[in-house]
Design brief:
Blueprint (H helix, E strand, L loop, with lengths): L1 E5 L2 E3 L5 E8 L8 E6 L6 E6 L6 E3 L7 E6 L4 E6 L8 E9 L2 E4 L3 E5 L2
Parallel strand pairs: 2-11
Antiparallel strand pairs: 1-3, 3-8, 4-5, 4-9, 5-6, 7-8, 9-10, 9-11
């Protein structure tokens, strides 16, 4: 199982970024996918979840209305569209998949929101 995030960077407040998580090594369309983030000095938190076929999503309250999780099962990729970014969104963002008792993480992609 391999998860590779990309798309992070430096953006001004109010700006947008789209993160991608390319996966391999498992049947992508069979599993829900999640995005987490970890800000400096803070615990990792769940940001968004999407079901295996993309029919349901859920978000932490702090990003509702600004972030959108989506997936392309043909490309084995999950996305996180982030709009109206705020300095408090600064963090390393990780994608994750859970298979039975196993949790698989990517290496993370860093997002910095600053003027």
């Amino acid at each position: 199982v391999q998860l590779v995030e990309s798309g992070g960077g430096l953006v001004q407040p109010g700006g947008s970024l789209r993160l991608s998580c390319a996966t391999s090594g498992f049947t992508f369309s069979s599993y829900a996918m999640s995005w987490f983030r970890q800000a400096p000095g803070k615990e990792r938190e769940l940001v968004a979840v999407i079901t295996n076929i993309g029919d349901k999503t859920n978000y932490v309250d702090s990003v509702k209305g600004r972030f959108t999780i989506s997936r392309d099962n043909a490309k084995n990729t999950v996305y996180l569209q982030m709009n109206s970014l705020k300095p408090e969104d600064t963090a390393v963002y990780y994608c994750r998949t859970v298979h039975s008792v196993y949790r698989y993480w990517g290496q993370g992609t860093s997002v910095t929101v600053s003027s």
